[in-house]
Amino acid sequence: MADAVLARRTPDAREIVDAHAHLGPYSLFFIPDNDADAMVRVMDRCGVQLTVLSSHLAIQCEARAGNEMTAAAVSRHPGRLAGYLVVNPWQDPVAELEHWADDPRFVGIKLHPSLHDYRITGPRYRPVWEYAAATGCPVLTHTTTHHHCDDPAMLGEVAEQHPDVTFLAGHTGLTRDGFDDAIAVAQRTPNVVLELCGSFMHGDEITRMVGVLGSGQVVFGSDVPFIDVRMSLGRVLFAVLSETDRAAVLGGTMRRLLAARRTP
User: Fold this and answer.
1) 117-166: pLDDT as tens digits
2) Which of 99, 84, 79 is nearest to 23 (CA)?
3) Is 66 part of a structural domain of the chain?
4) pTM, to two decimals
5) What is the CATH number of the domain that holds 121?
6) What sections of 83-223 are H helices per DSSP?
């Protein structure tokens, strides 16, 4: 696949899954090409088969309206896009989970404790853990080292209490010192999977994470449209990995996690 990129060809890969993406405009600054059609065009160019996304509207403002936007995008591109159900702890988590419980367009749950200013260890997330355990849905949560709401150590505490839930550590702690913290958490709690998107991520760190944890605990994510999928993908394509491990990180591990999805 790296040779294809160097030759300016689309990689011949049928199992690239982007595990972390967003949809729509963002309130704090302009992001071009933020709609579903633009996303799929870039996916086609890069050989990405499936992208799992959540809407900025759901994360930043109104969970129900934003989740409806996500559902519409998935319906527009079936088989290419899948949705994370955003749960805001201040906006009736139980009602939101019940409303979308049997909707196959949503394959996981997205949390953003630091943005919502609510610690991941708090009781308002209890319905999320119960739902994830019952359905097999992975939970993608933002993690920020040293933050009072979603430090990796806090995620580790929740993961230890809920070993039947799979947690994706979004951004792997976000900063370089956060990578160390997140790796240590994933070593202690095998139900924590590291997700790779972020401005500080690079190939050497990806090599290190796979070397310590194995490719079954590391998944590719781009954070598109914040970060161009081409740059995020290049980090994995040019990391020093075996082709078996590279294939797992790029999509095999995430496909396995999504296959556990059950109707409640």
Assistant:
1) 999 999 999 999 999 999 999 999 999 999 999 999 999 999 999 999 99
2) 84
3) yes
4) 0.95
5) 3.20.20.140
6) 93-100, 113-116, 126-135, 152-161, 176-188, 203-213
